[in-house]
From TrEMBL:
Limits of the Transposase DDE domain: 18-101
Organism the protein comes from: Sphingomonas psychrotolerans
UniProt name for this protein: Transposase DDE domain-containing protein
Lineage: superkingdom: Bacteria
Length: 106
C-alpha cells in the first residue's frame, strides 16, 4: 500500500482545512513542522496574501454543514452518552435519519 506522503504532490503527509480564524503564523509553522499542508485562507488584513486550495476549502464547508445538521439532535450537541460506543451509535442513527430524509425528499 503506498504511503500517503508519496501520493501528495507536495510530498506532504496531508492537508488541514480550516477557516480564516486559524490563520496565524504559529499555527502555520506548527503544521509545516509536522509536514501538513494548511488549507487556510489568509485574513483580509495580512500584508502578504497566502494562496490556498479552494477545492479542499469548499469540502471543509460541506463537513461543517453536516456537523450542523447532526447537532440538531440534542443528544449529539450535548453528548449525554459518556461511553464512546453509545455516542457513536447515536451519531450513526442521526446520520442515517438525515440521509433517509434526504433520499426521500429527492
Amino acid at each position: 500500500m503506498p504511503d500517503r506522503a508519496s501520493s501528495c504532490r507536495s510530498g506532504r503527509r496531508g492537508a488541514l482545512p480550516a477557516d480564516e480564524g486559524y490563520d496565524a503564523d504559529a499555527i502555520r509553522a506548527y503544521l509545516a513542522k509536522r509536514n501538513i499542508n494548511p488549507v487556510i485562507p489568509g485574513r483580509s488584513n495580512r500584508w502578504v496574501k497566502i494562496e490556498h486550495n479552494r477545492t479542499l476549502y469548499k469540502q471543509r464547508n460541506r463537513v461543517e454543514r453536516m456537523f450542523g445538521h447532526l447537532k440538531i439532535n440534542r443528544a449529539i450537541a450535548t453528548r449525554y452518552h459518556q461511553i464512546a460506543s453509545s455516542f457513536f451509535g447515536k451519531v450513526h442513527l442521526a446520520t442515517a435519519r438525515y440521509w433517509l430524509k434526504f433520499v426521500y425528499a429527492a
